[in-house]
Amino acid sequence: MATLSVVVPIYNVEEFLRPALDSLANQTFDDLEVVMVDDGSTDGSGRIAAEYAESDKRFQLVTQANGGLSRARNTGAENATGKYMTFVDSDDLIPHYAFATAMRVLETTGSDFLTGRVSRLDSRGIFSVPMQRESHRESVLSTTVAKTPQLIRDLLAANKIYRRSFWDHAGLRFPDGLNFEDGPVSIRAHALATNVDVLNLPVYYWRLREGATRSISRQTSDAHFFVDRIATSIISIDLLTERRPELLEPFFAMDIRHKFGIMFRNLHHAPPPVREQFMSAAGPYLARVPSRVVQELPDALRRRVRLVADGDLAGLIDELADGGRKPVSLPGEGDETVRGALKKFTPLRVLKRYVGQSTGDAKSKGRLYSLGVDDGALELRGHAYIEGLPSEGRITAANRLFWARHLKSGTRVSIRFTSLPSPQATASVTDLSWGSAHSGYHARLPLSKLRDSDGSWRYGDWVFAVGALTARGAHTGGLRTGADFTDFGLHPIDVADDLRIVPTVVSGVLRLRLERPEVSITDVSTVDGVLRLRGTSRAPLTDAATLRWCRVPGVPELTTMVTSHHRTPEGLTEFTADLELAAVMSQLGPVQVVPVAGTQDRLFADLLPSPDAAPYEVRCSEGMSAGEGFYTGVQIVVDSDIDGRTALTLVPALPVITSARWSPDGVLELSGVGGEHVTGPELVCRHTGRKEERVLPIDVADDGGWSVRLDPEAAPLPAATVALRAGRWRLVLRFRDAQGDLVDTDLSYAPDAISITQGLPFGERYLVTRVGLEALILKVAPRRADDERGTYNMSRLSTIVYPEMARTLPLRDVVLYDSFFGKQYSDSPRALHEALRGRDDGLRHVWVTKDAQAPIPDGVERVEHGSRAWCEALATSRYVVASTHLPYWFRRREGQTVAQTWHGIGFKRVGFDIESVQFSNKAYLRKVAQETPNWSFLISPNAFSTEILRRAFRYEGEIIEIGSPRNDLLISGDRAELSRRLKDDLGIPQDRKLILYAPTWRDNEYHRVGQYKFDMRLDVSRFPARLKEEYALLVRRHPNTIDDLLGYGNGFVYDVANHPDVRQLLAAADVLISDYSTISLDFANTGRPIIFYTYDLAHYRDQLRGFYFDLENEGPGPVLETTDEVVEALCDLPKTQRDYAERYARIREIFGHAEDGHATDRFIERLFADRR
């Protein structure tokens, strides 16, 4: 009988099954049985599972008819024989150390089950699970949900290993026939357990399936997405009512915030019948919720819950459509009274009187710029404010309070501060009604205030907070560090022999831990295959003293003897400990490659002075130089983590940065060793906020040395280079594994390659900084000034600055071009610019660019979108040419000509023709109505579009029906040359034909305002088997979308989302796959075949946009719903063209009658009519 049984339910996961099973086979703990349950798979999953069962005696396969995940898990449990049992979904991964560590912990504690941290895994790497931020914040052994109440949030089943006797005794079983089945099992387990081990250690990688293989939990328009969530909650409610009623209120508080928060985010987009089913299920649930639980919910959530309880579906949908954007109101009346209180009382008395009288849902905001100790005082600089309360002037900013609270005793200490201007703060404000220009602070806290009355240090955690006083009381929140606290090297500070200050960040709020250094590592060196650690201990050390290395505190996995030296005059014992690299690998290896943003295999040190003594946590002294060694290519590092703990980290045999520097001209130069361990290495710069990347080849020398140069002002795109946009770019290593598959992981670095305190800056714009021990980030500063960024500042520019410029500044002979809000050098504005370049006509040509992302030709003047200069250009340019909307506040001046070229009319409705606008910008139509009177004329490509444009935009001005200037290249360009250049740029063999897939965006699927999702439903993995020898597939996502393309880089699929000229893509393509995009009508001018992949046709037509004509019966190509149908159509294109030739001809007649290659000439004639 194996010690651990691993149950793996399998259903149609052919794409992911091998990695999942490999992650089990490669565990460092091998006393396990893997019970695979094939739940009636119809793809190759069963065959793959059978291969593992045949080749590895630890794997066994059970087959059954399809019955769903719960039934498959229950079947696996019935067949499991181990002392312990766990469940692993067949598309997920287990870190190689997870089972070994878990078994060691459970055998030590005897607990009923163990629960570990889960990380989500997608195409970009690892990210945290918000629900676990509280429940798994720290490792706690032998606890319960009563002792650790936040475990009520621990709803997943697969992050647990159960003692089989407890599983049977507690009657645990997954509910059959329901999705979201984990909750009832996890709640029952926590409710009935007498001891539970909680690990703050990643033990499970939960895959987020994307594109064509989305999992059930992401099918958000299905009724089960809503109804099953509620049904599984009711199972838990019934259990708790009967067995643990004291847990009901915490459960309700958690469940409503979590599940209803998810459902409310998706309900607005669900079909009406699904909404009704949600209301029917949610009403009885909410009837059981105590009123005080509802009362304590955040304002927006409370409003929505009450609407559901009242049965007001229409009111709920209106509330959700509004986004819940109810401004926080913090009255300023009575500020004089408040200032009087500040003068009358000392800060400490103000704290005692006012703090705790917090009102409303106000939240603290801010950013920490620096933290340090100087002349006996803690000094902090940053900005901080309460959301909704102005800090625009010095007086309102002075109404703030800063303090620190000792977590254990509750003691509060006031902090004196000076208010400072902080334009960075207002640049981050998203509310139009207030600013925070004076929310900066320089706070100084004498360390003497952190002592007890007897003069001893008050050790422990201190939480820092900020508050603002109004006539209604104090509005308080934590002192927030912001996302950039790593930029200044947040690190432990050794203040005195008996005091170390350890800054930490918990839920975004600053904490300082005051501790007495008991054991410190002062030096690490590498000598002959040994990492030698030197340190000091306050406690005397016996000859049996040991240094222990633990993934979980108190549960050692590697032990090193300590050699003790003499006692110093200060009462410290100096010691030495040797880590033999071979022994480390023997006990902890092998080491696996970790996905991007994952935690490397890491253990932390504690010291046992003697076998029967309590262990001391081992810290690194401030300024300690890290040590590293290599064994069979594996990098073994002893370093300090961000909290100052001594960490032993194992990194697989991969390239490692040993040198990082900026060249004088601003090029980041990286070089290192280990290049021989990988094939085809590339540096991937990956934007952390926009799902965007830039890729550069890494040059590897014969000896394994490697180098790469990154110019952030000219990062590569297909056929162009552009600057890296503002934000944070993670430096990632990409290479091919032994099977030829692409692998991404964080680029490792030697500890001394990048300073942890200063990073590696270049001027004011660029900074390379370390994130923990895991990764390097290149931070790129915004191009706009602080007083030009943010909603508040943009409001000032548009309502004050721009109107003043328009009144006082003269018009200038400038043509201002804007394509897709400055994001592109494209469309009809580009066609116009190319035709005018080089003419001696006395005109200046200026392009709008957003974050320098449009690859404008050298020598062409640019203006940054959203800047003061952009406002001036709008106010003073005699000619304004745009392919999409201009700002709603723009007003055409007398003598100014505004040409709206629009980016096309096709199948889908636009403007006021859309019956139900579902854009992220809910005020879209109101702004359109304000904008259109300012157009001098509007270009229509054909007679069909003219009528639509006038009606859809309610435009009463001039429309010129001249064809589309952007299509001139398709009509009269040299296709052979355009195709040859494109294939060269992309590295595609010249004999390959090109398939272009270019879908539109979905109005209702967005991450945030202006950033739409790219839902790649076309399964490109099914193309190569039949098409790879003849074709290459180019994928062009819509400019409004920001998500990654999956599956490219295999020599067949090419990501051309950032190609600068879609006209070249259309000219070169042999066949187009699209959906409802205007691009298909542009492509019809070529006469080449078009295929429509419309997986959501009914929804898009009937609920989202609607069409101008019957695509199914009048479209110029087949209208298909599945990938397999698309592949079939591609395999017989001559037949496809024959079958749709009549329709195609009709479409060309309707939409192409004005396309003769000279639309741009006609555009120029009309635009400059005033100059003739």
TrEMBL record:
GO terms for molecular function: CDP-glycerol glycerophosphotransferase activity. It is found in: Cell membrane. GO terms for cellular component: plasma membrane. SUPFAM superfamilies: Nucleotide-diphospho-sugar transferases, UDP-Glycosyltransferase/glycogen phosphorylase. Keywords: Cell membrane, Membrane, Teichoic acid biosynthesis, Transferase. InterPro entries: Glycerophosphate_synth, Glyco_trans_2-like, Nucleotide-diphossugar_trans, TagF_C, TagF_N, Teichoic_Acid_Biosynth. Belongs to the CDP-glycerol glycerophosphotransferase family. This is CDP-glycerol glycerophosphotransferase. It comes from Stackebrandtia albiflava.
